[in-house]
Design brief:
- This protein has helices at about 1-25, 30-50, 60-105, 110-120, 120-125, 130-150, 155-160, 165-170, 175-190, 195-205, 210-215.
- The protein folds into two domains: about 1-150, no CATH class; about 155-215, no CATH class.
- It is mainly α.
Length: about 220
Amino acid sequence: NISKLIDEVNDVSGLAQSEVQEAEEKEDYEMAASLSEIVFEADELKDKLKKLKEDDVTDLRYQLEDKKRQLAQKFDQLVKDKKLIGLKTEYFEAKEYTISVVENKGNESDKKKLKDILDKEKAFLQSENILYIRDIISKFGELTWRISERNPDFYYGVYINLCSEEYRNKYTNKNRAEELIAQGEKAMERQNATELRAIVYNLWHLLPETARNKLDSGGTGIG
């Protein structure tokens, strides 16, 4: 449907924006310009998609869907060589961590979910599609989150991580973040896991995408 297409375009745009920032920090302005062009094209594509009805089946819809695929391929080609090695390393780290969590804390449903993911490993290893690889890694995060959130201590660990200097300096609204951190301290004192869970979600949403991705790679799966 159209909403799903828009979400997929947003994914490409968001990743490209993160890469623009990284390229500019490294003074790779040629790469930054190429990535900025992808962001611009994604914005144009979203505007066109938003004008279509949700159940649109016209030629235009399929033309725009094809444009979305071309845009994703263009992004992949730009950053593929740089990202592939790092992403595959991240995959195996996430895989090892997830297997450990499932073996120690998972139930039969969790074990089946892990098997479903690992059954796709051969295709993953042969893939050079960055968005596909990220999707597989995110599934590990979602699974470990589902298992870990059954343990109230999990929220305490994530909260402590979000209070560290590494993340404390990255919040997009520092005043709001400090308010939430203070509320979290009181929730910790009361051992109120439900309240702390809400605070963890709110803090996570105040982080920029690059920081969220780093936190998620540790197995939180919050997003």
